[in-house]
Specification:
Chain B: Belongs to the ABC-3 integral membrane protein family. The complex is a heterodimer of chains A (about 250) and B (about 300). Chain A is of the alpha/beta class and about 250 residues long. Chain A has helices at about 45-50, 70-75, 95-100, 105, 115-125, 140-155, 170-185, 200-205, 220-225, 230-235, 240-245, and strands spanning about 5-15, 20-30, 35-40, 60-65, 75-80, 160-165, 190-195, 210-215, 215-220. Chain B is about 80% helix and about 5% strand. In chain B, helix 10 (about 180-220) crosses helix 11 (about 225-250). Chain B is globular and about 75 Å long. The termini of chain B are far apart. The relative contact order of chain B is 0.16. Classes of the chains: A alpha/beta (about 250), B mainly alpha (about 300).
């Protein structure tokens, strides 16, 4: 089962009130890669994630996860929504939020218990937030909240992860910690798709990119896909500005 | 005995409403509770016209159906591009108005008083008793409200994690396979049920207070959802007992006093809550000010 490709999207079309947001997008994602989803605002990056996860209806096309439907493979998939998508004043603490990552595995009636608590604590530890387990979530900084969300995704214990702008509004230290974590996931053979905005870090962070602009502009390994021509097709004019990003040398983290 | 039944009735209303109210305010849907409590009126009137009696079960059914229709219509208008608050305002006033017409049009031949529907009359609850095989089983309202509370407790107890995740992060809930829409309508159905069951005792307008005020007070007092639910129920019970004795003391509307007490408790929590109260926030700001900022 896990031998087939983690994600295959065929001819995916999504529309909001008849206005198409994604236009017949098709691609196949290889296993064990860190993949950046790039494109201008309104290019359909978040929409792509939501459509794949079945959160919004699709007009046409199909999505295969490890060769099956999302419904069949749900427990193999972890999701990190945008941080602003939830109310951080909700009466709960960090550990409790991480335990929510286990709810899908518990079925209809089972309640989270000692084993879920233990796993959630381990996941908080992995993101360096163990000391904040009992902290009310509104009292965490933006970067700490993002780490809690990542810990929750780790608790889902998935093989394929979707992350919607995990680097938005976090400081440099947190960004480094997050990217390190993503590399750890990759080294365990997991596949991670990340909606990303900062073009200057693309070469450094991702093995593989998907360039979106309503249509799929290009998709493939970063070295051959993240080119000035493709970026111009994705973002329109402003090539002078974009060229700078492409010339940033490939580096490794740390 | 009269005191006991009235306070018990009020407490049962407060308990069901307090539990559901927590989820409503956390989902920022306090106004939906308001809308449901008003728009179930035509359901009650229609059930009354069909049966010609105050058969509680039929009323519960009719009103619950209208509660769900309300939620459905509000979502329909929202999806059509109307603002959320405008959709709520349009749907509930329209349905409520139909209810008012139905009741006043038939006021001469039915025994359903508009004042009673709007404001309830908890003092009469003790006279309307349930007779089973010739035995007096106590006030019918207590049985109906007790049953409603059991249903609410069972649903929230069984599906606590689902209700919680749907309130905090519906996107993740849907992604991990929780049927979000089902739990949305289940919550709305329970709100309709509790509202209708509470109708005769506190009325359509004050039940909104029971849904929202104790839950909001509890929200200020704790940082844990489970504790918030317990506090909300305790506060509701305090409101009904306190409100009853206050009403007796100054000889006024019981339901009105109950919600007034709820309002006073909220005000106290708003000012003095050790977590989120004004005093605590002020003290915190002063503490921060006293520490000199390091110059870098």
């Amino acid at each position: 089962m896990l031998n087939s490709n983690p994600l295959q999207v065929n001819n995916l079309t999504v529309a909001y009130q008849k206005k198409p947001v994604l236009n017949a997008v098709s691609f196949v994602i290889p296993s064990g890669k860190l993949i950046g989803i790039l494109g201008p605002n309104g290019a359909g990056k978040s929409t792509l994630l939501k459509a794949v996860l079945g959160l919004i209806p699709i007009v046409d096309g199909e999505v295969k996860i490890y060769g099956g439907s999302y419904r069949e493979q749900r427990k193999n998939v972890g999701y990190v929504p945008q941080r602003e998508s939830v109310d951080w004043d909700f009466p709960t603490n960090a550990l409790d939020v991480v335990m929510m990552g286990r709810y899908g595995h518990l079925g209809w009636f089972r309640r989270p218990g000692a084993s879920e608590r233990k796993l959630a604590t381990e996941c908080l530890d992995k993101v360096g937030m163990k000391d904040y387990a009992g902290r009310q979530i509104s009292q965490l900084s933006g970067g700490q909240q993002q780490r809690v969300f990542l810990a929750r995704a780790l608790a889902q214990n998935a093989n394929l992860y979707f992350m919607d702008e995990p680097f938005a509004g976090v400081d440099a230290t947190t960004e480094k910690a997050i990217i390190q974590l993503l590399h750890d996931l990759k080294n365990q053979g997991k596949t991670v798709l990340v909606v990303h905005h900062d073009l200057s870090t693309v070469r450094e962070y991702f093995d593989h990119v998907i360039l979106l602009n309503g249509d799929l502009v290009a998709e493939g390994p970063t070295e051959v896909t993240f080119t000035p021509e493709n970026l111009q097709k994705t973002y329109g004019g402003r090539l002078a500005l974009l060229q700078d990003f492409v010339t940033v040398p490939v580096g490794t983290v740390q | 005995m009269g005191d006991f039944w009235i306070i018990l009735t009020g407490s049962l209303v407060a308990a069901s409403c307090g539990i559901l109210g927590c989820f409503l305010i956390l989902r920022k849907m306090a106004l939906i509770g308001d809308a449901i409590s008003h728009s179930v009126l035509p359901g009650i009137a229609i059930a009354f016209l069909i049966s010609g009696s105050r058969d509680s079960f039929l009323m519960l059914l009719g009103a619950s159906v209208f509660g769900l229709i309300t939620v459905f219509l509000i979502q329909l208008l929202q999806r059509g591009g109307l603002q959320g608050d405008a959709s709520i305002g349009i749907v509930f006033t329209a349905l409520f108005a139909i209810g008012v017409i139905l009741i006043s049009r038939n006021a001469s031949n039915i025994d359903l008083d508009l004042d009673c529907v709007l404001f309830g009359e908890i003092a009469y609850v003790q006279w309307d008793t349930l007779i089973l095989n010739g035995y007096d089983m106590g006030p019918a309202a207590v049985w109906m409200l007790g049953g409603t509370l059991l249903v609410v407790l069972a649903a929230v107890g069984l599906f606590y994690k689902q209700f919680k995740l749907c309130a905090f992060d519906p996107a993740l809930a849907a992604a991990v396979g929780i049927p979000v829409a089902l739990f949305h309508y289940l919550l709305m159905g329970l709100v309709s049920l509790s509202t209708v069951a509470s109708f005769e005792s506190v009325g359509a307008i004050l039940v909104v207070g029971m849904l929202i005020v104790p839950a909001s007070t509890a929200y200020l007092l704790t940082d844990r959802l489970s504790t918030m639910l317990v506090y909300s129920v305790i506060l509701g019970v305090l409101c009904s007992a306190g409100g009853y004795y206050a009403a007796k003391w100054i000889d006024t509307s019981i339901a009105g006093s109950m919600i007034t007490v709820a309002g006073i408790l909220f005000l106290l929590a708003f000012i003095f809550s050790p977590l989120h109260g004004l005093v605590a926030r002020f003290a915190k700001r002063r503490r921060l000010k006293r520490v000199p900022m390091p110059l870098n």
